[in-house]
Prior knowledge:
The chain is 40% helix and 10% strand. The chain is α+β, with helices and mostly antiparallel strands.
Amino acid sequence: MDTIDLSNLNRQFLFRQSDIDKPKAEVAASFINKRIPGAQVVPHYKRIQDCDSDFYSQFGIVVCGLDSVVARRWINSVLVSLDVDPPNKQIPLIDGGTEGFKGNARIIIPGKSACIECTLNLYPPQVNFPLCTIAQTPRLPEHCIEYVRMMQWPAETPFGKDIDGDNPEHIQWIFEKALERGSQYGISGITYRLTQGVVKNIIPAVASTNAVIAAACATEVFKLVSGCAPIMNNYMVFNDADGIYAYTYEQEKKERLYGLQSGVSDNHAPRREYTERANRFFD
């Protein structure tokens, strides 16, 4: 249920400024179908949990470019617990993600290799600033920006109740107020770009990193469907912050997480749990 935002335009080639506020899936599918003769990309503008098991079991491979751990855990639980025909068939999950100059790509063979649940420790916890720190003892540029966003904006409502992260006037006002607060506490490093990133909760995206991870995922798909080379085993990390570094290694499967492969009676329980979590997250 994702729509195109102004900040999306600088790191991909599928969307244009005229596409802002339109569904990403529909615009991307339309672009690819026009650009590549014979392509038949079918968009589905809905939440991933709105599709049932029959929908996912029809595919030979599932490729993910999701932006949350909750969504990854949900699709992982669905593919691991699918009852597919023939019984020994598994639907591979290829997943990629980036954050700034860092990225990773992985391939998951349900029941055979490490899945999302096996490697939850790889995902960094979300950073939240305590309100008492923001209000009383700010130490970081982000503290000043969050104070203005959370405290001063609701009190002064300079442009109405809601903040529009794509409105330059809104960001400029928060930026200037954050500079004032920073000067009171001797905090430097407050920039317009940082202000926009904090307000919109933007994870830095670098086009070159996105391209490398996308290429890695596409390569694994090609190897799976063609059998031209062994597939990745099974996790690749990439970093181009200082030079270029890439390393592939095997994440180990945690056997206790695959109980649903060993006769557990209710193999849909994990899926229901993550469906509830995903519904809360997306709502």
